[in-house]
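Good morning C.,

I know you're traveling, so I'll keep this short. The sequence:
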Amino acid sequence: MPPRTSHGHSFICRSCLVALQKRKPSAQWLTRHPSSRTISSARRSGFSPEKEAERQRTLELLGLSKERRGDKFSVKYFEKKTDGKMRPLRDVDEFNRSVMDLDAETEARLQQLEEQLEQATRFTKIVESIYGKRGAEELVKRAAESDPDNHPSVLLPEHGWPRAKGTQCITHLNNMIRTVGRKTGGGALRRGRINALWKYYSLARDALRGRPDAVYREFWDFLWRHLAVDHDNNPNRMYHVHILAQDMRKVGVALHDDQQLLAIEADFVSGFRKEAVAAHKRFVLTLGTNPETFAEFWELGLRMYCLMDDVDRAEQVVKTIVESPYEKDPRFLFPLIRMYASKPETVEKGYKVYQQLRSDLGDSITIDDYDTIILYFLKANETEFALFIFVDMMVSETVDLRGVHKLPPSVGNPFFFGKWLRRLISDGNLQGAHNVLLLSMSKGVLPQAIHVNGLIGAWLRSGTADNIQKAEDVAWAMINARMQFLGIRKDMKNLAAFIRLRPTNEVWPRANLETFSLLAENYKDRGLHAKMERLWIAFRDAEIPPNSFMLNQLLSSYLQSGQGKHIGTLSRDLTNHYRVEPDPWTFTVLWQALAVNRLVEISPQELPAETAQARSLFAEMVRSAHIFENGIDLYLSRSILHSFRKLEDTTGLLLAYRALRHIFKFIPSDLVVMELQVGSMDLLRTAKGRRGLRLMHAGQQVESSLRQRHQELIASGQLKAGEELPLDARTEELGNILERFLENQITVPDGGDIQALLRETAMEMGFGGDEPETKTSTPGT
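The tokens, ready to paste straight into the viewer:
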């Protein structure tokens, strides 16, 4: 209510009058015509006659009109400012202007709305220029459909459910539906969001079934659209459809034709085969006769009956499809071919159906079609029929191999079968490749070792016990074939020139270096040292020159079996005997095999001998420096440096670091610098132990040296103030920091000559008397 003033005058605030002006006039008011008094009053106030008439009527209703008979009072007008203070107004005209004037906040809001409208107009024109007017309308429609707030029937009422728990579940489900509507963007949901939607729907199922009248069709369509989407993000699609269709039937919601077909398939896939078949029979006269669903309905039935091995019904469905007047894709026969091929008594019928399919497709048959049908026969171990189809795929002219004992040259050669083997191995069909391998040998075609090695490698990589055993059996059969060949070759030296011996039952190709390498790597990885030794004996008997890979596998096997002390001698014997050049991996194994890296502790009496062995090994590396032309591995570099550190060979460590840096192109990292300064290869453990303060101090020294170098470069003009230290300068300075630290670690007895000590150590480490030059950049240089 408006307050009374102390002088008896009526008071009405601005907000009340504005609200009264917004009241919708009645029909009676709309039919009245303004009087002359109203028109003259309107001229004085600045309002239109209609608005002035409305204002006068409002004043009359409130009892505030000046011209009411018998009422003599005056009206004072006030305006409330934004700070809450009241300002008196002179007369009604000033009051009217005050009512019509907009404050700054309202004007800013109106301006913002105008800018948004202008931006929306520009965006609409851009969309129309790209997609056209119809395309733009379709995008707007799709965006509106994706927002559940535009479709209130998608959301469920959140009151009136039987129990509080049911109401809570409905609320959570509504919130999830809103989230899905905002996040979908017209595409498939992420897997996590689909799972969340299914979770909240599952929790609300009981409540929904208890009150079906509160759930509209749009809600079910919304769930179906997102839970039945065929996408990689929805791996449980069929189970979702099975449950969703079940709930829709229970609450009396009729499924659309496409939904009904998908529901039948989902029932079948989910294990409810009898229910799916029964549903399929119920819709024979509806979906089975509708031209729009005919093909999909009967092809679904064919797939189900073929998977159930119901030959009679499957053949009846095929007859129905063939005799129908509708257009059909001959590929609908794929399930029938698969069913026929799976049984020996019907495999001939399967091959005949394939021939009919190939004839119907003609030139439109694809490589994928051939691969699919070949796979059916290979899985059924009908490899010969698979060969016939593979020949049709690979050979342009017709080649009939039925009943042929000897394959024609275009087919009966290792290259033809090699192509097939490579194709099957790349597709991961290892059992099919094995069957093809056996078929080729049964046809008198000896495969090449490279193709069999590919299958052996694929078996070993699979990691399954059955495949690994197959790989070993085939590899050793190839090794025995080579041994038999070598034995015959030796026997022929003592026979006449015109006599030729041939191996009996030569069904496997002879093993080569790759065959031995595959087995050696597998034995090494599995720690089967006994089998590795047996393989090495066979390898020497096979008279195959080894390479560094085979050598490395043997050395690694010895290291894993705890026989590291023999590795150095074994390596030198093998490399000298077989003239095998070591590679970086060879030296990695050799450094790991040193006692200082194998044993927990070395007695002081053994240190001189171990130090000499480490220096000798480094000398071998220097002689093989050309194999490190692309730089040395960080792991190997760390092993070398820490080996000398643990041996407490300070001069050897300094020279090894200089050689690694200037000969082997080693770039020390922050990690290596800190490890050598602290004396540990595990900085994390060091930070938690007693040497944590030492690690922190070393880090501070490194940072201090880097800052000093940075300031020197700025002072010399090589860097501008504010520029960071370049990466190459930082790397160089880190190397110098480590070198200075290692130099300071060398202690020389009184009267000793440090240069003489370094020259002697350099001779032992293979530098020929001249250690690598130091390129240390001291501060200020």
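Safe travels,
E.
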